[in-house]
Target: NAD-dependent protein deacylase
Amino acid sequence: MPPSKDLHAFKKVLSASKNIIVVAGAGLSAASGIPTFRGSGGMWRKYDAMSLATPESFAENPSLVWQFYHYRRESALKASPNAAHVALSSFTIPKVRERIAPGSDFTLITQNVDGLSPRSNEQVFAQAGVTVPDTPPYLIEMHGRLFDIKCTQCDHVEFDTSSPICEALAGTEALVEKKELDANIPIENLPRCRKCGSLARPGVVWFGEVPHDMPVIDKLVEKADLCLVIGTSSAVYPAAGYAAEVADNGGTVAVFNFERTPGDEDVDFLFLGGCEEWLPKALS
Ligand code: BJW
Ligand code: ZN
Model:
């Protein structure tokens, strides 16, 4: 049977679900003006992922990789959460969720590193005047954060939203836009660890590295009876495998995406279009 696009039927399933997870990707932030990775307009069309998003590429050319991430940091700082982030933040608040899916737990597992989900949470929770309990975790940034600066030697991590992150990178975002990355910034002028002075790197998870909070995520996926897959091409593992695992365990899967993605023919619900349009309707 093809996936249903019946929002009313989805809301009925949502209201009866107890362990709800969202697996989100770059499409969640697309309406905030942050480019996705794959597909038309995606960053990996313009840049080679393997020469920017691997530990090996950083070891070979930290200047080039830092320019790319400085550009990404500056874009994220200028962006604001969109209606999809806000709908998810609102759904995170227990007293809001109680009206929609009584007695349920909820966790947003995002692959995004742009900080828009935590910023949206801060704003929405403050506006509602609530503190949300930490158990279960309500937000997991499994691919790290653009604003974490991580030491290559002592592993010290510091959250730093300075703009620019260091003087040598100031203004180089224009070069990235023109695809004229300049690989010649001396290593001593790149971001350094505040603790030991060694070269620091962006605190994101590159290909070949283990995503954050894996044991916690594994338990959440195992328990989930509803999985919403939002704005991800489902091309990168382990996140790409979560929906199938929930389905194998008898749970329901709903995909929200602009376009068709691998495996979506087997899901229960498929809502094609912008998640910033769908989520405010689906989660209220
Ligand atoms: C909209 C929209 C709108 C647009 N509304 N929708 C086979 C099995 C298992 C693993 C592997 C395997 N083969 C290879 C691997 C390893 C590798 C991998 O998956 N490679 C693939 C290429 C095959 N994975 C890893 O290396 C991971 N680590 C790992 O596996 O460790 C081993 C281990 C795991 C667990 C336990 C123990 C050990 C690490 C992966 C790290 C990925 N890093 C990046 C860069 C992060 C830093 C940065 O941001 O620069 O993460 S790559 C990039 O892709 C980024 C993203 O988080 C990730 C996913 O992309 P996403 O979010 O799906 O974006 P897009 O652009 O692909 O899709 C956007 C979607 O939105 C599209 O579908 C649009 O249609 C849609 N859209 N507008 C709704 N308005
Ligand atoms: Zn250090």
Notes: The longest strand covers residues 144-151. The mean pLDDT is 95. The chain has eleven helices and nine strands.
